[in-house]
Amino acid sequence: MQVPAHFEYEKAASVSHALLLLARYGQDARILAGGHSLIPMMKLRLAQPEALVDINGLTDELRYLRVSGGELRIGALVTHAQLLESELVGQHFAILHDAEQVIADPIVRNWGTIGGSLCQADPSEDLSAAFAALKGSMVVQGRDGSRVVPAREFHTGPYETVVAPGELLTEIRLPIRTGAAGARHGSAYVKVARRVGDWPVGAAGAAIWLSGDTIADAGIGLAAVGARNFAAAPAEEFLRGAPASTQSLRRAGQLAAEHCQPVPDQRGPADYKRHLASELTVRALVTAMRRARTPAAGRP
Amino acid sequence: MQVNVTVNGTVFTREVEPRLLLIHFLRDELGLTGSHWGCDTSNCGACVVWLDDVPVKSCTVLTAMADGRRVRTVEDLDRGGQLDPVQQGFAECHGLQCGFCTPGMMMTARWLLDHNPDPSAEQVREAISGQVCRCTGYENIVRSVLWAAKHEGGGT
Fold it and tell me: Which of B43, B56, B131 sits opposite A111 (nearest CB)?
């Protein structure tokens, strides 16, 4: 039987109360949201916090999806199922619906939260790649106020983020960029996994902005393939201003793969993961470009 | 810590360790052994129950997290001895072999049909994709759920 080790349990009544509790217990306290990453890790003793601060009751403060200030704002306590079901999300970012359809399984998505997935900071985590592609940012709150951290600076290493002891991730912000007049946007996410519910062997997300037949801007996110900051910056730079052609997208895929440092594991050897980085980047870009060109058609 | 959990309509007040998982609370504290304790890694779904009206893998939820909430288990499916159409479907279509995955499969199926009374076979497969039948009896499970949909009036 797998059971977590002993810990103190505290139920937060508000965000400020949660921060107070985190301060009281210091660096051995962890936030408990959906628990679908943390509890399995606690069962395996990969995590052994002395105290858990349960924020599941903070739905008024932390569970919302809204557009504000030209951004989609996602409360940290939004579940994967809610992100998948949201028309608002799908209308702006098809990439998030693509990703959510292949994150864990429908039952896990009911309780697993967006903030929890990000703070687990698994190098294979899909939304980290999607948010990197969309060049989003995260709001991290402490007792002295909050700060906004770019998605590409949120992770400091495997299972490590900029969220310091005593701090709480409260919101994810995704810029809704309509860009110059006539610029069209599309996005997509593609993942290869061994079976339903598994982490990816490799995955890629792409966001593209078209101006006529030119790629005005592009964002590329990669998961599980050893991409720096979950992103493929050199491939994005290449695409900026490039013709909106299949040839451009293929070259971007090559560049994305060249800058990855995949680690071989039970999911596959490094060469295969590098191949996936290239191929999946291309596939995500192709779908994103098709969606940018046919916005009225919606998602295929 | 003290918890108040409403299980199948009855409020239970118990003193529990914060680390007690919901599946063990249901089985060991309340004697509701219908929900099965399977892989312990949130992969197999034998432990699926409803928590505040949505299916959850109860091996991955602390009892403390269910404090003040509602839980529904497989014991609550029948009504006064009358089997739920999902249960009838599993009986009619041989939806269970060893029976270990059955309670979780049925709780997910009930939830699916409550939200989508006329699912396609593909939608049923998607709904149960996070659950494992080690007898590999998926065909019959899908048939059972579709049988229930048909006999509830939703299916075509």
Answer: B56
Nearest to A106 among B1, B20, B130 (CB): B130
For residue A36, the domain's CATH number is 3.30.43.10
Q: Say if A299 falls within a structural domain.
A: no
In this prediction the ipTM stands at: 0.95
- Inter-chain CB proximity B127 and A106 less than 8 Å: yes
> Rounded to 10 degrees, what is the CA torsion of A277, A279, A284, A287?
180
Helices and strands (H, E) in chain B, number of each type: 5, 5
- A46 and A74 together in one domain: no
Residue A289's domain comprises 184-293
> Rounded CA gap, A98 and B70, in Å?
31
A1/B131 CB distance under 8 A: no
Q: What is the pLDDT of residues A188-214, one digit of tens each?
A: 999 999 988 899 999 999 999 999 999
Task: Tell me which residue of A135, A167, A165, A169 sits closest to A152, measured CA to CA.
Answer: A135
CA-based torsion, A43, A44, A46, A48: positive or negative: positive
Q: Which residues pair with A203 in a beta bridge?
A: A191, A223
- C-beta of residue A30 within 8 angstroms of C-beta of residue A119: no
| Chain A residues touching B45 at Cβ < 8 A | 105, 107
A89: amino acid identity, one letter: V
Tell me the pLDDT tens digit for each residue of B133-146.
999 999 999 999 99
